[in-house]
Amino acid sequence: MAGIMQKAQQAIMGHKGDKTTDLAQETKEVSSKDRLTTDYGVKQTTADDWLKIVSKDSTGPMLLEDPFGRERIHRFDHERIPERVVHARGSGAFGKFRVYESAEDLTFAPVLTDTSRETPVFVRFSTVLGSRGSADTVRDVRGFATKFYTQEGNWDLVGNDIPVFFIQDAIKFPDVIHAGKPEPHNEVPQAQSAHNNFWDFQFNHTEATHMFMWAMSDRGIPRSYRMMQGFGVNTFTLINAKGERHFVKFTWTPELGVHSLVWDEALKLAGEDPDFHRKDLWEAVENGVYPKWKFGIQAIPEADEHKFDFDILDATKVWPEDLVPTRYIGEMELNRNPDEFFTQTEQIAFCTSHVVPGIGFSDDPLLQGRNFSYFDTQLSRLGINWQELPINRPVCPVMNFNRDGAMRHTITKGTVNYWPNRFDACPPASHQEGGYVEYAEKIAGIKARARSEKFKEHFNQAQLFWNSMSPIEKSHITNALSFELDHCEDPVVYGRMVQRLADIDLGLAQTVAEMVGGEAPTEAKRPNHGKRAKALSQFEFPPMKTSIASRRIAILIADGYDAAAFTAAYGAISAALAIPLVIGTKRSKIVAADGTTSIQPHHHLEGFRSVMVDALFIPGGEKSVVTLSKSGRAQHWIREAFGHLKAIGATGEAVDFVNKTIALPQVSVSSSGDAQESYGVVTLRQVSLSSFSEAVEIAKGATGFL
Ligand code: HDE
């Protein structure tokens, strides 16, 4: 085996792949030089009038004869394809991946060993339950799917922002998704787990317990796709050149740290800006603040497979970092927005079964089922030739005898379409030539519908997760469960679920029971094992470097604002690569106190809301501050931002306005003009923004108190 691996490793030479150049072959750009044509290329003289019978004073019937008119309506009628059965709503971007430390001790796959190589990627982020048109900030798991266009073929790492899953065996997938999606009788609710069927399933299906705790934590409401971890969830395998195999899990950790919204923000954003995450990703890439993630691997040698008190093939379990540390070896950057949503973000199709030589599967029963499902589901969405679509095709050569089928468009010359053939055309590749190497695993067993014993333990890691949370995170989970179960009308559902929580923590169960009206359990269902683990709390993922880059900072002004303070703030925010958003009492010109300087705001106070920004800044200027202080909406902006634990900066007359509005006696301004901070509120007599910038960082890192 070792010899084969070495030869296979040597044989992988590849072909320089650049996805942008590859896609350029199919990309057209509309310009004023183009003239309108039909799909068959004939120029059209009008886009306005169907061919009809007209007379001098009347318009007569339209003619079915008109091929132009018919073609336009016909094309429109068939524009929609089925949305993804799960993860329907998403958005993505192009980027690049590079390893800075070779993982050659684990694998011979060049994508993970060749430090000189840059692999193009496309990443699609998504929610799971909602339809394509649902809101971004709902409480849900987020998808994090990466297509690596490697020189040895496509590798799809189809992960989530939560490292575990609801079920252990793929056969249960239709049940967990049916239970979470809108209920069958009235198709309510949209994009929510807060309903009877979801929680009924969680109770009846104990293996989901660990996962629902993650979904109820702050991970269920990320601040941004750019601030989420990604996890491959399933156990994969890596094979090295010596033929040794390791079980592995893959992780992405964002450079910006892991941050969340507070629930009140998430709820309001779902109505005020349903595209919040989509726009955030787009803007960051457009503004050149490219999101980056470190790529990590946890590895267990084959011989150690059974050394843990959980089954390492069970996708409802994490591999605690204390037992199996993550080794970070690579980095991914997203740096180009798609040119067209449909042909790229919508038509991209991921398959867990797409792996390249050196990477393999394990017997994880969830992964094995996924390997069938992803491949299969593309048929109803895209048709049999979906791998030929520009976004899906590999950047390395593709040749085989798969032929025909609806919408085939590769034209292959030659007189044979089978193997073996008399010309020796397109023979299978040897290992030496880079042919995929199946690991020669010896397996003995009986055929049965069963799982190994260790899969039957369902609560230890739910408790481990709860124990590992900080007090704020625990209170957020308690509040999330109280919200969700309040939305379940059936007393059987919420009554039983609060009993289930006593399997995790008695205090949690009692608090939630009191809130939602269930009978409070009086004793814990099992003793707390008292264990904690690293890296489960998101407080353990601070930004790799502190920065306010790409954060949105609103500057609130009215006529009479202090132009000097405004300009200094605007300049400092822009210089730090954050996004200053000027919010006026109106969107038409606002004139400064000096009577000459003016600015047209980006938005007005009613058109934009505090939940859409990370921080506020209010410059002085007597008239401006008087106007703002008389505006209920301006006051609401400040109070709401304060409640969401956002940094609020103010100078001059605005200092007293902010203090009065949030009515906090401890917020004061020192006579020296130094910054005074209280829960992220920074007020300054002098214009110096460093304390404010720090407060923006701190406030978001704290994930809020609500
Ligand atoms: Fe998926 N999942 N899934 N899933 N999943 C799909 O494939 C499925 C699971 C994930 O942006 C579908 O192309 C089964 C775990 C993401 O296009 C479908 C099982 C994880 C995406 C499917 C799982 C995921 C999908 C629907 C249990 C985290 C969006 C459309 C055995 C590791 C990919 C599609 C994109 C999409 C099946 C469980 C993540 C139906 C059967 C665990 C990020 O094939």
From TrEMBL:
Heme binds at Y374. Pfam families: Catalase, Catalase-rel, DJ-1_PfpI. Keywords: Heme, Hydrogen peroxide, Iron, Metal-binding, Oxidoreductase, Peroxidase. Its EC number is 1.11.1.6. One of its GO terms (cellular component) is cytosol. GO terms for molecular function: catalase activity; heme binding; metal ion binding. It comes from the Eukaryota. Catalyzes the degradation of hydrogen peroxide (H(2)O(2)) generated by peroxisomal oxidases to water and oxygen, thereby protecting cells from the toxic effects of hydrogen peroxide. Occurs in almost all aerobically respiring organisms and serves to protect cells from the toxic effects of hydrogen peroxide. Belongs to the catalase family. This is Catalase.
